[in-house]
């Protein structure tokens, strides 16, 4: 068994099963300790998730929580820092220096609406990936991978 990093992922109302599968695969590659699938986020077993995850759902611990807000509050009560990945006036660039607690949960949000305001307001830090193109956004699975590996190397 591979030791897992003290990094968690919380998926706040992700819609796409393929994105969820991709995030599972990336989480396994990064050594994420656990994924929290919240709200409408689809959960295994689903063939669309399994296809993109390429078996990673068997290696990454996960749990479903109906409310992302309540799950974030629970994680915070255990001393886990909450880092939200979102474009927001309060966000800092991913490359900016910031202190991380020994355990952290990266929160990513819905492909259209982002992270819910309630969850965003509970975050200890809000980070964003600077955009240089016209579209000004990335696929949530791609953005999760970039942020996750940045946190690991921080």
Unreliable stretches covering 5 or more consecutive residues: none
Helical proportion, percent range? 25-40%
Q: What's the CATH architecture name? A: 3-Layer(aba) Sandwich
User: What does the largest sheet look like?
Assistant: 7 strands, parallel
Q: What shape does the CA trace take?
A: globular
- Termini separation comes to 24 Å
Integer average pLDDT: 91
Q: Report strand %.
A: 15-25%
> How do the strands line up in the largest sheet?
3-2-1-6-4-7-5
Number of helices: 5
Classified in CATH, the superfamily is SPOUT methyltransferase, trefoil knot domain
Q: What's the number of domains?
A: 1
What's the CATH class, please?
A: Alpha Beta
The secondary-structure element order is EHEHEHEEEHEH
State Rg: 14 Å
Structural class: alpha/beta
Task: Assign the CATH topology.
Answer: Alpha/beta knot
Gist of the model:
With 154 residues, the protein is α/β, with parallel strands linked by helices. The protein has five helices and seven strands.
Descriptive overview:
Helix 1 (17-30) packs parallel to helix 2 and helix 1 packs parallel to helix 5 (140-152). The radius of gyration is 14 Å and the shape is globular. The two termini are 24 Å apart. It has helices at 17-30, 47-53, 68-77, 117-122, 140-152, and strands at residues 7-12, 34-38, 61-65, 81-85, 92-93, 104-109, 125-128. It is of the alpha/beta class and 154 residues long. The chain has one domain: Alpha/beta knot. It has a 7-stranded parallel beta sheet with strand order 3-2-1-6-4-7-5, sandwiched between helices. The chain is built from 5 helices and 7 strands.
């Amino acid at each position: 068994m591979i030791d897992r990093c003290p990094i968690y992922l919380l998926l706040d109302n992700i819609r796409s099963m393929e994105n969820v599968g991709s995030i599972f695969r990336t989480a396994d590659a990064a050594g994420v300790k656990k994924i929290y699938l919240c709200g409408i986020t689809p959960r295994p077993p689903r063939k669309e998730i399994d296809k993109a995850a390429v078996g990673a759902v068997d290696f990454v611990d996960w749990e479903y929580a109906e409310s992302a807000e309540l799950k974030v509050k629970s994680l915070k009560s255990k001393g886990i820092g909450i880092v939200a990945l979102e474009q927001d006036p309060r966000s800092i660039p991913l490359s900016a220096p910031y202190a991380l607690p020994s355990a952290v949960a990266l929160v990513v949000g819905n492909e259209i609406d982002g992270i819910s305001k309630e969850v965003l307001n509970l975050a200890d830090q809000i980070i964003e990936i600077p955009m240089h193109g016209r579209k000004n956004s990335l696929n949530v699975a791609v953005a999760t991978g970039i942020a996750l590996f940045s946190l690991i190397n921080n």
